Amino acid sequence: MSTLTTEHVTITFGGVTAVADVSLRAEPGEILAIIGPNGAGKTTLFNIIAGIYRPARGRITLAGEDVTSLAPHLLARRGLSRTFQNLQIFFRMTAAENVMVGRHLHEARGLLPHLFALPAALRQNRATRRKAEELLDFVGLASFADQDAGTMPYGALKRLEIARALAAEPKALLLDEPAAGCNPVETREVDGVIRKVAASGVTVVLVEHDMRLVMRISDRILVLDQGRMLAEGSAAEVRANPEVVKVYLGAHA
Question: Hey, what domains does the chain have and what are their CATH numbers?
Fold first, then answer.
């Protein structure tokens, strides 16, 4: 069973069709990249999948369940996590505390146990802290656990966002420009984390402009142009597709 599918998804804004008849599937442990020129509809498609936009037509499934038009918090409960192109970090919290926030769906949230620091609440907090430390180690940030996020390097913050998204234990992880703004060393670190996430069985769907990264790590690539599917296939197939070359480089090139 595919982890994530869209079937003929379409959305319009003021008469302009931003995404038209897009169908995709992403399997467990697969890395699927969505690429295309600026304005191709990549982020809009992400926003539809993540429940921010409601499609005019089409259907979305997560682990076989129809989740079309569910709100983001309901999608999170069903196993969909997302990062954003612009950092969404709590800069005055430590790295560990940032990841702990991502565990809220797996915690009992009664007021009184926490208000009076009852043993059950203390045990839960310790378990959440242990899980956060495990995830920080997973993304290579164990040494930053007690450091304020606001003092961490930019590339480390990109990996911290991935760790926090993984704290929700997703079936599918949407990464919006995970290497945006990273230098080559930081990009390789993000590359390694994405590979580890997929190897753990989580489905990864990413939008990314760094074509070197995309070609290195993707199992399959979906190319959008003006909201429509232009091509789909392996890195080698997409790279050799004349329509893709035309869109990125121009017909003369």
Answer: 4-79+170-249 (3.40.50.300)
